[in-house]
Specification:
The complex is a heterodimer of chains A (about 625) and B (about 180).
Chain A lengths: L5 H14 L4 E6 L2 H5 L2 H14 L6 E6 L11 E4 L5 E5 L6 H7 L9 E2 L34 H6 L4 H9 L2 H11 L11 H9 L7 E6 L8 H8 L1 H15 L3 E6 L4 H17 L14 E6 L9 H8 L23 E5 H13 L1 H5 L9 E8 L5 E6 L4 H8 L9 E6 L5 E4 L9 H6 L8 E6 L4 H15 L5 H18 L5 H17 L3 H5 L2 H9 L1 H9 L14 E3 L8 H5 L5 E2 L7 E2 L9 H5 L5 E3 L1
Parallel strand pairs in A: 1-2, 6-7, 6-9, 7-8, 10-14
Antiparallel strand pairs in A: 1-3, 3-4, 4-5, 10-11, 12-13, 12-14, 15-18, 16-17
Helix pairs in contact in A: 6-10, 6-13, 7-8, 7-10, 9-11, 10-13, 17-18, 17-21, 18-19, 19-21
Chain B lengths: L3 H15 L1 H13 L6 H5 L2 H12 L4 H11 L3 H10 L11 E6 L2 H5 L2 H12 L5 E2 L5 E6 L11 E3 L2 E3 L6 H9 L2
Parallel strand pairs in B: 1-3
Antiparallel strand pairs in B: 1-4, 2-3, 4-5
The chains are: A alpha/beta (about 625), B alpha+beta (about 180).
């Protein structure tokens, strides 16, 4: 069925809303991590249980994208039309009968209930208390991503209809500019301004590209949106196409995201069949279609000029800007490159208006940001909060605090381009500008939480190793400079650093920041600079005292046996290097020359007789 | 001097002789692409062709590169440049089971390097290498996005979460016939 006018879309929506059954929905989280944790077995168990019993009249199973509760996958949510809901985490297929039996009246015995006080996906009654606000993730984990009807029921393609029938292209760009939506890929450039640049170019071939080459380690929000709500990205790209005068959209997606690719393909087919993509959309005379291009594992391809070269089939090396892609991009035509999360915001902004969008978040950075919480935190998962939320709220309220009750040390935000934020900045309301001011960067929004066992020098070294691996090699500061930074950091971690190394480290980092060609190179020293600013004492301990305060740098650790030793010999038996000697029932001794610091003796000793320094 | 069309026959013939089924699959795929005389247009299809070819052959041997080069009218050197740039592509055969240890930040802080070391020790290979019996290929990758299960190991398409060094031999045992 092809929809030719907005009224046909409204009629379809009305009939779909009418047809919604009053059955209790069982949402099953089936993103990549849900599937890895066994979500499909849970879905099978539900389907089987519904077939066998008389429950089929009461329940309806709905496979959805990631709910964001990654720490307790497989997750399911029971909800009825009134909004009453129960969420279960760590669901076992064997618990399904009990869960169906209990329904919404009470929590099923033996199953883990996810407390809703911190996770209000769409709980109208609790809006004021909710820390989360869902715009980009509004449908993710709520609808079946493989059914376009589910998207239409939730106002899908209404924004596109509005734009094509009642707005001029310039008005669309202006609305996006007025909303002050900033690029969610990391740098925070105003999206509306980008669109205006491309729109101002003479008529002709133009392109809209969606950057889905999510390469930051620890960031998975784009994948969640594509797996959970692909249509919102398609709708937004089409709107952008209308605003800028482009008729071709390209989604550049990592080949490592097979599930997102499958669901995008399904969504594109559905949108074409309904007439949301293709020729003469909504009878407006506007044509737009979208194709997929696959990345091939190169971090630098997240940079827009590199991405464009990769789409052209070349090595993904960045080029100097200007000319900016909005002026001269793919095959020398004006090209807009926006990130997945940026696009996911667009339909809502068009529907509800720029003024509404600006009521959320901060003045300089309106709206929300999706963060992927990972590392040593109790609730690993995806959260979406208004800009200006403090890290303390994100880590301790939403994230449930540090795992194993350890002490918070730092968060690393923004991936290899970002920085480490220390405890003293936990109460800073975070948005693009405040993060920059404290030496970090929004990046794509991966938040890795670290505790007292993590050595900040080692973390900086880890990121530099990543950058060295991923540097495309085109410009010297990044190719050679980062390699030297990595070597210096390795020396420090191995106890070979001197105070002079620290001076050189900082000075080289600053030079790379100023001289590298692209965004990747210019931000690559950030992990070094931010850890030096916030954790200088750790660097100094490494070079002055040859000591790693966190006990993470293996070469700087010393294991010794204290007077608690009763001479049981367990350590000596387990030592792979036979470095421990001693007589039974007498205190043993570790030969420091033979010790490889594997830590096995430390783990095996039942009497706390081994000291780790 | 042989002309271009003879050379084309040779590269394709050779591959046909070695791997008839796979080669016809690749050729059928290339023929389905909207290729033309314009190298820029053809280049736009290079990466998807390489994806397809690696999917069919498991890696990108020289003969395959040569066939792609002739069909897409792109030089061998440029194709090699692309293959060597992207970490997804490889021109060396890899072991039957691909072990990928995630070393993204979340896995790193949860000790993934100890897992890598254990695999290296047990398989006696370095990262990016295949064991002598061609059974295992050890690979380190950056974030599969399953950070809640950190540290994560993937063997082929199977994901193992919360892996400890002690689990490494158990995991390997499942794949040693």
């Amino acid at each position: 069925m092809t929809l030719k006018t907005p009224s046909e879309l409204n009629a379809l929506k009305a009939s779909l809303v009418q047809a919604v059954s009053d059955k209790v929905k069982i949402l099953v989280s089936l993103g990549t991590c849900g599937l890895a944790a066994g979500g499909s077995k849970v879905l099978d168990a539900i389907t089987a249980a519904l077939e066998e019993s008389d429950c089929a009249e009461k329940y309806e199973a709905v496979p959805v994208g990631c709910m964001g509760l990654c720490y307790c996958e497989p997750t399911i949510e029971l909800r009825d039309g009134s909004g009453k809901a129960i969420i279960y985490g760590n669901v076992e297929p064997s618990q399904i009968p009990a869960i169906l039996e209990a329904g919404l009246t009470s929590a099923a015995e033996g199953a883990t209930v996810v407390e809703r006080t911190w996770y209000y996906p769409e709980d109208e009654n609790n809006k004021n208390k909710a820390l989360q606000a869902k715009i980009a993730l509004r449908n993710t984990g709520r609808i079946n991503p493989e059914r376009i009807e589910d998207y239409i029921i939730r106002d899908g393609y209404q924004a596109l209809a509005k734009v094509l029938t009642s707005m001029k292209p310039d008005d669309v760009s202006q609305t996006v500019l007025d909303s002050n939506l900033r690029g969610r890929g990391g740098a925070g450039f105003p999206t509306g301004k980008k669109w205006q640049f491309a729109a101002a170019q003479p008529k002709g071939q133009k392109y809209m590209i969606c950057n889905a080459d999510e390469g930051d380690p620890g960031a998975f929000m784009d994948r969640a949106v594509l797996e959970g709500d692909p249509h919102s990205v398609l709708e937004a790209m089409t709107i952008g196409g209308y605003a800028t005068g482009a008729d071709t959209g390209i989604i550049y997606i990592r080949a490592e995201y097979p599930l997102a690719i499958t669901r995008l393909r399904i969504a594109i087919d559905q949108a074409r069949k309904m007439g949301f993509l293709g020729k003469n959309i909504f009878g407006s005379g506007f044509d737009f279609d979208i194709e997929l291009k696959y990345g091939a594992g190169a971090f630098v391809c997240g940079e827009e000029t590199a991405l464009i070269h990769s789409v052209e089939g070349k090595r993904g090396e960045p080029t100097v800007k200007p000319p900016f892609p909005a002026i001269q991009g793919l095959w020398k035509h004006p090209t807009i490159v926006n990130n997945v999360e940026t696009y996911a915001n667009i339909p809502v902004i068009i529907r509800k208006g720029a003024a509404w969008f600006k009521t959320i978040g901060t003045t300089g950075s309106p709206g929300t940001k999706v963060f992927a919480l990972a590392g040593k935190i109790n609730r690993v998962g995806l959260v979406e909060v208004p800009m200006g939320t403090t890290l303390r709220d994100i880590v301790f309220k939403l994230g449930g605090g540090i795992s194993k009750d350890r002490i918070f040390k730092a968060v690393q935000i923004g991936g290899p381009s970002g920085g480490c934020i220390a405890a003293k900045n936990l109460d800073t309301p975070i948005d693009y500008d405040t993060l920059k001011a404290i030496g970090a960067m929004m990046g794509s929004g991966g938040i890795i939480v670290m505790d007292e066992d993590d050595c900040m020098v080692d973390i900086a070294r880890f990121f530099l190793e990543f950058t060295c691996d991923e540097s495309c090699g085109k410009c010297t500061p990044c190719r050679i400079g980062n390699r030297r930074l990595y070597e210096m950091l390795t020396n420090i971690c191995h106890g070979k650093g001197t105070p002079q190394t620290l001076v050189e480290l900082r000075s080289l980092a600053l030079v790379i920041k100023d001289t590298a060609l692209c965004g990747l190179g210019q931000t690559s020293p950030n992990p070094v600079l931010s850890t030096m600013t916030n954790f200088m004492n750790e660097y100094e301990a490494h070079v002055n005292e040859r000591r790693c305060p966190a006990g993470a740098c293996a070469r700087l650790i010393r294991f010794t046996i204290n007077e608690k030793c009763i001479g049981c010999g367990v350590c000596a038996k387990n030592c792979p290097e036979n470095a421990i000697s001693g007589v039974t029932k007498k205190r043993h001794l570790i030969d420091q020359n033979k010790c490889i610091k594997c830590g096995i003796c430390f783990q095996k000793c039942k009497f706390q007789a081994i000291d780790k320094q | 001097m042989s002309c271009d069309c003879c050379k084309k026959e040779k590269a394709l013939e050779k591959l046909m002789r070695l791997e008839p089924e796979k080669t016809s699959q690749l050729v059928a795929f290339i023929d389905s692409l909207p290729l033309g005389q314009d190298v820029d247009v053809n280049r736009g299809h290079l990466i998807e062709t390489l994806h397809k070819a690696q999917g069919i052959f498991g890696y990108l041997p020289q003969e395959v590169q040569q066939v792609i080069s002739e069909r897409l009218k792109i030089t061998r050197s440029e194709i090699y440049g692309v293959i060597s740039f992207y970490s997804y592509f490889t021109d060396k055969p890899i072991g039957r089971h691909k072990i990928s240890v995630c070393c993204g930040t979340a896995c790193f802080v949860k000790g993934s390097m100890r897992i890598v070391d254990e695999f290296k020790k047990q398989l006696n290979v370095q990262e990016g290498e295949t064991t002598a019996d061609l059974k295992f290929f050890l690979n380190v990758l950056r974030c599969v996005g399953a950070c809640s299960l950190a540290p994560v190991v993937m063997v082929d398409d199977q994901v193992y979460g919360k892996v400890t060094p002690e689990m490494v031999s158990e995991i390997l045992a499942k794949y040693r016939d």
